[in-house]
Amino acid sequence: MKQDVLIRAEQLYRYYGENCAVKGVSFDVRRGEVLGFLGPNGAGKSTTMQMLTGNLAPSSGQVWINGLDLLDRPKQAKRGLGYLPEAPPLYRELTVKEYLAFCARLNYIPRNQQTKAIASAVERCGLKEVTKRLIGNLSKGYQQRVGIAQAIIHSPSVIILDEPTVGLDPIQIREIRELIRELAQEHSVILSTHILPEVQTICDRVQIINQGELVLTDTIAGLSQRMESTSVLVRFDNPPATEVLMSLRGVENVASQGDGRIRLRYRPEQDPVDELVRRAVNENWRLRELTPERRTLEEIFVSITQTEDQQEAAA
Ligand SMILES: Nc1ncnc2c1ncn2[C@@H]1O[C@H](COP(=O)(O)OP(=O)(O)OP(=O)(O)O)[C@@H](O)[C@H]1O
C-alpha cells in the first residue's frame, strides 16, 4: 500500500438483518486530506464510520489504517485513529481535566507523557478556561470541543468526526468548523455530515453516499465545476420561434417561464451564448435580459440522491 494512504476501505458491506445498510463501499484517505462523507439521513454514514473505527464489524470487506489490517491487528491499527462519534462518550460528572486524563490512559499514552498530551489537547481545542468545570455544566459547543479533544489526545494521524456540528447554534458551528480546519493542518480528517456548506467550506474532497452506496467522489474544485452554468434565462422584446432557439448549437431544452422570460438549457461543453447574442443582434430579436444560472450544490445533491420520480414530486 502506498505510504501516503492512511485509511483504505475495500468493499465494505454491512447488513442489519435483511437490510443492507452499506453496499460495497471502497475509498482511500491520504495524508493531509479532509474528506467529506456526505449523505442524507439513513444513507449509511454512521455505519461506515463505525466500521472504519473498529466499533462495528463489517459483514464483509476490509479496512487498513496506516497499512495495518483493522480486523487482524485492531489494537495497533486503532492507535492511528481518533473518533468523535455522533453521540460523544462524555462523562458529565467528571471535570474536563479528569475526563481527558481518563482518555489518555485509555489510549495507552505512557504515564510520563500524559500531562503533556492533555495540555496539548486542551490548548488546541480552546479548553483552557474550562479544565476544572464539570462536563455536564458546559455548553453543547464546549462539550463538542471536549469530544474532539478526546479524539486527538493520542495524536492520531486520522480523525473521524461524525456529524460534529449537529445541535450547535450558528456561532458554535462556526467555531467548531474553524477548529476542524486548524486540526486539518496536522491530521487527515474524515468528516461525516448531511450539511452541504460544511463540506464546501472545510473539505478537499467529497464522497456522496446514498442508500448505502457511494454515488459520487470528486474534489471540491470538481464539484464547483459541476455547479457551473448549464442554463441561461433570456428575455426578448421580439422573441424568435422556439424552434429557432432549439436550433442554437448545444441547446437541449427551451422553456417559457410565463413572465416573458425563456430558460435555455444546454450541454455543459457547448455554451450557446455567443451565437445567441450574435443572432439576436443580426435578426433583431431585441434582447433585454440574459442571466446565466448556476446550479447550487443542493441541486446537484438532490439530482444525485433522488430518483426522477422523487424530484418531480418535490418540484
Ligand atoms: N443498529 C441498527 N440496527 C438496525 N438497523 C440499523 C442500525 N443502525 C442503522 N440501521 C439502519 O441502517 C441504515 C443506515 O443507517 P446509518 O445510521 O448508518 O445512516 P446515516 O447516514 O448515519 O444516517 P443519520 O444521519 O440519520 O445518522 C438506516 O436504514 C438505518 O435505519
TrEMBL record:
A Pfam family that the UniProt record links to this protein: ABC_tran
ABC transporter domain sequence ranges: 7-236
Family: Belongs to the ABC transporter superfamily.
GO molecular function, one term: ATP hydrolysis activity
InterPro entries, per the entry: AAA+_ATPase, ABC_transporter-like_ATP-bd, P-loop_NTPase
Gene3D superfamilies in alphabetical order: P-loop containing nucleotide triphosphate hydrolases
Name listed for the protein in its UniProt record: ABC transporter related protein
Keywords: ATP-binding, Nucleotide-binding, Transport
CDD domains per record: ABC_DR_subfamily_A
PROSITE patterns according to UniProt: ABC_TRANSPORTER_2 (PS50893)
Position of the signal peptide: none
